[in-house]
Amino acid sequence: MRFLSYIESDPAQPWGPPPPELFEAIGAFGEEMVKLGVIVDQGGLADIATSPHIRLAGGKITVTDGPFSEAKEVIGGYGMYDVRSREEAIEYSRRFMQVHLDTWPEFEGTSVVRQVFGPNAESDVVGEA
Q: Which of 48, 56, 90, 115 lies at a 20 to 30 A Cα distance from 63?
């Protein structure tokens, strides 16, 4: 089963830029996940201000390069896990948040864990009988 885990946080973060120790700890966490064979991909995402938006509304597709109105939350990074269960994906995501707490205690955010469906992922829906 594949799960996408991503972190949402306030882009107007009052706690300042991430410390170098966070990136070192994320690298070590990623190496551990590779050794365990559970990480498919992981990474940080570019600033929302530099990311184009493609919108479908009213039967039209528009592309906007920005600037954008202030967002309340942005997705700053992600991890794609290939695991045996939802609980296992939750545990790896919890551990990733622990990396943040240990190296950047001022940070506040939410890790969201979502099951992925498609040709490269199991199609069983967690929680359905």
A: 115
